[in-house]
């Protein structure tokens, strides 16, 4: 008995470059924050931050065609987005390995703006600083402050198990992670061309 081949859910930067050239029906969704998108993104991609995508996953699944590539900084948020869309009925989306930086490093066509720290780097900075402060405070101020390091460690463990990041969500609301125009359903999702029956059939063929 032959087992079914596993579904391929990732795409390399090199393959994405080929798809962009060959397929007019390709939709590239960047699920990072608007500030991260503004700093660096795949040319022609649409910015639909993960919280917005999660809120409108069903509408997006109906609107998108079968050829969708999801992009973030490293692949973690894009995989979360893929799972949200799969739960809404769109199970053909691919995650770009290496994220937007990997695509740029591979010679892909990108748009660069003002430089900002990406969300994952901010999370590492805040979590690491909190652990150091907790340990130092526990030694020099009060032993009770050591609990801060334990709380952060527990939170990071939960984030890994649940594939979510509460700290990232909190940091995304900070002023330095905001742009003048934040994506909304109207400005982001409704700007994505709705797939036609012809394009879906051509992709399936």
Topology of this protein?
Blueprint: E1 10-11, H1 13-22, E2 27-30, H2 34-39, E3 40-42, E4 46-47, H3 50-55, H4 57-63, E5 68-71, H5 76-87, E6 94-96, H6 99-105, E7 110-112, H7 119-140, H8 146-162, H9 166-172, H10 197-204
Parallel strand pairs: 1-6, 2-4, 2-5, 5-6
Antiparallel strand pairs: 3-7
Helix pairs in contact: 1-6, 4-5, 7-8, 7-9
Please explain how this structure is put together.
The chain is of the alpha/beta class and 205 residues long. It contains ten helices and seven strands. The strands form two sheets. Strands 1-6-5-2-4 form a five-stranded parallel sheet. It has a two-stranded antiparallel sheet with strand order 3-7. The radius of gyration is 19 Å and the shape is elongated.
Report the structural category: alpha/beta
Report the sheet-strand fraction: 5-15%
Rg estimate, integer Å = 19 Å
Spell the H/E element sequence. EHEHEEHHEHEHEHHHH
Strands across the major sheet, in which order? 1-6-5-2-4
Task: Report how far the terminal alpha carbons are from each other.
Answer: 27 Å
Total count of helical runs of at least 4 residues: 10
What characterizes the major β-sheet? 5 strands, parallel
**How much helicity do the residues have?**
40-55%
Spatial shape? elongated
Number of strands: 7
Stretches where pLDDT is under 50 for at least 5 consecutive residues are: 1-6, 201-205
The average pLDDT score comes to 82
Outline of the structure:
The protein is an alpha/beta fold and 205 residues long. Helices cover 50% and strands 10% of the residues. The strands form two sheets. The chain has a five-stranded parallel beta sheet with strand order 1-6-5-2-4. A two-stranded antiparallel ribbon has the order 3-7.
